TrEMBL record, chain A:
Subunits I and II form the functional core of the enzyme complex. Electrons originating in cytochrome c are transferred via heme a and Cu(A) to the binuclear center formed by heme a3 and Cu(B). Gene3D superfamilies: 1.10.287.90, Cupredoxins - blue copper proteins, Cytochrome c-like domain. This is Cytochrome c oxidase subunit 2. Residues 93-230 form the Cytochrome oxidase subunit II copper A binding domain. InterPro entries: CcO_II, CcO_II-like_C, Copper_CuA, Cupredoxin, Cyt_c-like_dom, Cyt_c-like_dom_sf, Cyt_c_oxidase_su2, Cyt_c_oxidase_su2_TM_dom. GO terms for biological process: ATP synthesis coupled electron transport. Residues 254-334 form the Cytochrome c domain. It is a multi-pass membrane protein.
UniProtKB/TrEMBL annotation, chain B:
Residues 4-291 form the Heme-copper oxidase subunit III family profile domain. It is an enzyme of class 7 (translocase). This is cytochrome-c oxidase. CDD domains: Cyt_c_Oxidase_III. It comes from the Bacteria. Coiled coil: none annotated. The keyword S-adenosyl-L-methionine does not apply. GO terms for cellular component: plasma membrane. Its EC number is 7.1.1.9. Belongs to the cytochrome c oxidase subunit 3 family. One of its GO terms (biological process) is aerobic electron transport chain.
TrEMBL record, chain C:
Residues 38-542 form the Cytochrome oxidase subunit I profile domain. GO terms for biological process: electron transport coupled proton transport; oxidative phosphorylation; respiratory electron transport chain. GO terms for molecular function: cytochrome-c oxidase activity; heme binding; metal ion binding; oxidoreductase activity. The keyword Heme applies. It comes from Ferrimonas lipolytica. Belongs to the heme-copper respiratory oxidase family. The chain crosses the membrane at residues 50-71, 91-112, 133-156, 176-201, 213-240, 273-291, 303-321, 333-354, 366-389, 401-426, 438-462, 482-502. Pathway: Energy metabolism; oxidative phosphorylation. This is Cytochrome c oxidase subunit 1.
Amino acid sequence: MPWNLTPGVTDISEQVYSLHMTIFYICCVIALIVFGIMLYSLIYHRKSKGAKPANFHESTKVEIAWTVVPFLILIGMAVPATSTLIAMEDPSESALTIQVTGSQWKWHYKYFGHDIEFYSLLSTPTDQIRNQQEKSDNYLLEVDKPLVLPTNRKVRFLMTSDDVIHSWWVPAFAVKKDANPGFINEAWTKVNEPGTYRGQCAELCGKDHGFMPVVVEVLPEEEFDQWLVAQQQAATDAAAAEQASLEQQMTMAEAMALGESVYIGRCAACHQPNGMGLAGVFPAINGSAIAAGDVTEHIDVVVNGRGGTAMQAFGAQLSLRELAAVVTYQRNAWDNNTGEVIQTTEVDAVMQGEQ
Amino acid sequence: MSQQYQRYYVPAQSPWPIVGAVALFMIAVGAGNYVISLPEGGGYGGYLLLAGVAVLIYMLVGWFRNVIDESMSGMYSGQMDRSFKQGMAWFIFSEVMFFAAFFGALFYTRMIAIPWLGGASNNLMTNEVLWPTFEAVWPLLTTPDGTTTEAMGWQGLPLYNTIILVISSVTLHIAHTGLEQEKRKQLTAWLGLTILLGIGFLTLQVEEYIHAYREMGLMLNSGVYGNTFFLLTGFHGLHVTLGTVMLIVMFFRVLKGHFTPQNHFAFQASSWYWHFVDVVWLCLFVFVYVL
Amino acid sequence: MNSIVNDAKTEAAEPLLDSSDHGEHDHHEQPATGIKRWLYTTNHKEIGSLYLWFSFIMFLVGGAMAMVIRAELFQPGLQLVDPHFFNQMTTVHGLIMVFGAVMPAFTGLANWMIPLMIGAPDMALPRMNNWSFWILPFAFAMLLGSLFMEGGGPAFGWTFYAPLSTTYSGDSTALFVFSVHIMGISSIMGAINVVVTIMNLRAPGMTWMKLPLFVWTWLITAFLLIAVMPVLAGAVTMILTDKFFGTSFFDAAGGGDPVMFQHIFWFFGHPEVYIMILPAFGIISAIVPAFSRKRLFGYASMVYATASIAGLSFLVWAHHMFTTGMPVAAELFFMYCTMLISVPTGVKVFNWVATMWRGSISFEAPMLFALAFIVLFTIGGLSGLMLAITPVDFQYHDTYFVVAHFHYVLVTGAIFSIMAGAYYWLPKWTGHMYSETLAKWHFWCSLVSVNVLFFPMHFLGLAGMPRRIPDYALQFADVNQVVSIGGFAFGLSQLIFLALVIKCVRGGKKAEAKVWDGAEGLEWTVPSPAPLHTFSTPPVVK
Ligand code: HEA
Ligand code: HEA
Ligand code: CUA
Ligand SMILES: [Cu+2]
């Protein structure tokens, strides 16, 4: 563990670091002087040493001095602070814009003008968190799909949220900005060195606030451009796969296997691995009316979420196959046994009916 | 000066505060429970809440009776009177700050939140990306999510109510002068008139609310316009109700022959409260209705 | 301040519970005894004791929750509690410590000491005083009770930011809201009582600039309370309507703004933190001169500094919100105002040091705690100054650096000052000297462990550990372990204090009227223990 802020990998983070050190040293000096004088009194003006109390109890001169001097020190601090702040708050003339959306409890990244968007979820296995497995090096600071950025280009972030307030923080960039639902905050960075940088959500956002890391992979410019192309290709492929999946039928076994992994990854944080939910907070799925009732309604809840509750819309987060599988799983796991296998076409119908 | 340091009356032990504490507890638990079970129709909370209010009233009656008895039997001094007055003044200040929170919310939404949703200041992208069709205007008749409502004009009922309240402050002042000049008739008549005006105000406000809900579709949950409208006027209405009750109590005490030109703290406190409620209304009228 | 003629002495010597004649007329009935004595009391000393005991119990309860937090954070991974419960512990720990421990403790001290210090027979409105106290236990019973509801108690942090506390919170939010309302009513009534007592019940000759500083600081604190507690009430009310009645104050979809909640909350919240420190300044300003045997340096500037801190406290609230995306101009304004507060606070620290300078200093328990206060509060204040620097606050915000800052100002600030005050006045309250040995043990154990507990948190924060998390990356493991050990040790050390107080109430060496040779003020002119009724006829202060 570093015992201090680190200078980071951007010009701004270096400025912030040196500002931090300057203020810190000034504070140390002030503390040393004050405590030094106090200690001197405590040692030399002790009753047990026969000290007799003096009589003075005010002095306008001294009092003015120790009002004015701190004031001047403060002005000395405010000047560099002001210029750094103004530089930090200027996101104009950026080369790339990325929308960062927090939601309970993951990040979503969308590259403007490139047709690329994806979710980024904690990838530390539950067993490690529950102490049933050795913890990996990047315990709690690892994700399935990191944000990818280029070096040397000014990147602008548009922060927002789907539900509660989150805060996107990468210490090495000195960027921390709240993601407020319904509003967009802007921030920017320009990274000097390639590498992998880790941070965490920095605003209490509910139960799994501690399990919402930010991982950024910074690539040299050319590599980044290649990555962009590859991602766009992948996006096209995925769309084709969605289309293709409409033609395929899933068997119960297939659907249950895929469904379970999706359930554990997305649903279990709230509804719990055993489907029992948390009484009074998150409803159970095991034995619930929805999981036993009308299929269309069940799909609708999963795809579109429930407004005014913590239930999110998963339609955009999962593929048709995954959606179908997870609904199948919910309807057949634990004590639920409708025996129905939901197919992609049924999910698609609900999603189309929307528009 | 020596007058100022008479013996200060320290009351003996009293059961009323603990009764009051229990009452507040019942009200709080009852209200909490009621609110939680609203979707199922209210649960037992409502009854507990009402019982709490009943105990609170019982407590207030008992407590004030003690105070009145003490006051009438001359145990209080000028100094005590000052304590009461200062206490009341600070209480009113705390009420001012309570309203300040809601006025603050009104100003913030009007001057910051809504313009920002419309793309002002550093929130250009808020509008472009999240609410591209939203238009920042006040009164906010179409919210970002598309709920619509109508705005309450200041003409008609609100204007009448303003006139009523302003007049009631004057009539109360005349009653007060009557008290100070020992003109009992003037006191009773004008105090009675003030109470009638208060009740008139409340009636009109109820009518206004019914009109808003039935005909205008302006409701508590009609976006921030409805939110601020109903919470500000609603809390004000509650205060008018309380003020009217205080004046009614004063009326009966006047009939019983209480109060002297020198010694009428309770009357004065009620009158301060009434003037305070009046001033709040004037602010409301300007910021909620007219502007 | 100087010589005090006290004609209350004779009368003050009456026995504790003699109702036959203590300057009150018309006592037909015997006063109730037993439990009813405490339920019905109108006596400022009894009510003061109630407040003090209540706050100490709350300190233990809130501390026990802190122990749960520290135990879970002892190692990485989830061991003892699940994240949802962890959040409840953090939230309720903060609420209990702020509203249940520190504020009632100061109110208790005010009740006990202000009438004694200004030569008043009691508080100005004694029955209301009792009411202010007795609604508190109910409020906290409600808050604690909500932890046992289905879905658990409040889990959104003591700052209850919307929409986590509205759309995304549990049912218990309703109970939370109403219990905060009650706490607010209690504080407002208590504060009104203090203001009126000070303005109206001072003994003849007790002019404004002769008031002991504890009285001055409390007067200003009470003003802050009356000004901001209603705003908190407004904030929770809007939370209630947003959650249960479909309003959208804090929801952009209806034209509101979640950040507006933070503005309203911190408009209350920042003055609130000064509410928790100004009376502490008053206590320290009484103790330092007493044990330096020298008059307080710069009395007038102390008063002005207190008033400036209170005034500025209304202009700095958004320093808690630097990352919320305010425009630069607003960030600059709040940064500058926040930095300015260091000036009057510095004046206070310098005055205390100058008071000790060329004094004749001795180190009894009150003084030890006061000295620790000065040093450790200053450390907390300086880290506060670092937090005020906006561009760097982006790095510190919502990390353990902030947690370190506020525990330095709250635990080694507010709590230590309360301890100092308790040692200073305990002989006056009980009539017995406390055990100096136990006191020394308590002090040194607390001093060492509190720093082991809170100092390393600075490093955790700088290294990047966010606050309000039940589990953390492996690199933070070692330091967290040290912190937790410090926490347990500090908690256990407080049990020494509990033992000491109980022992002191039960018996001990008889205390004189003037317990400390250097102490000044009217409270030292009445016997120890202070009789139930003092100054029924005001003393004359010359
Ligand atoms: C008793 C309580 C108390 C007190 C007294 C203070 C005092 C101060 N606080 Fe603190 N603060 C809290 C309680 C308190 N605070 C709490 C509870 C929080 C967190 C809330 C939450 O989020 O949960 C918080 C958070 C907090 C933040 C937000 C951090 C964040 O979330 O990002 C900031 C930022 O500016 C801040 C600043 C300050 C400053 C500048 C002071 C100043 O008043 C300090 C002034 C004192 C000194 C500076 C030292 C003495 C002076 C001298 C020796 C003179 C010479 C000095 C100079 C010239 C520099 N505080
Ligand atoms: C005056 C206020 C006050 C006080 C006195 C304390 C006292 C303590 N606090 Fe507190 N704390 C806050 C106010 C306070 N805190 C606030 C406002 C927050 C923010 C909440 C939020 O984020 O919303 C917070 C948050 C907070 C956190 C961060 C939680 C998080 O972000 O996840 C931690 C973590 O260590 C912590 C620890 C402690 C400890 C160990 C003590 C110790 O000093 C406590 C010592 C006392 C005792 C332990 C009780 C006495 C002993 C016993 C009852 C016997 C049993 C003892 C043992 C078994 C050892 N506190
Ligand atoms: Cu997301 Cu904390
Ligand atoms: Cu603050």
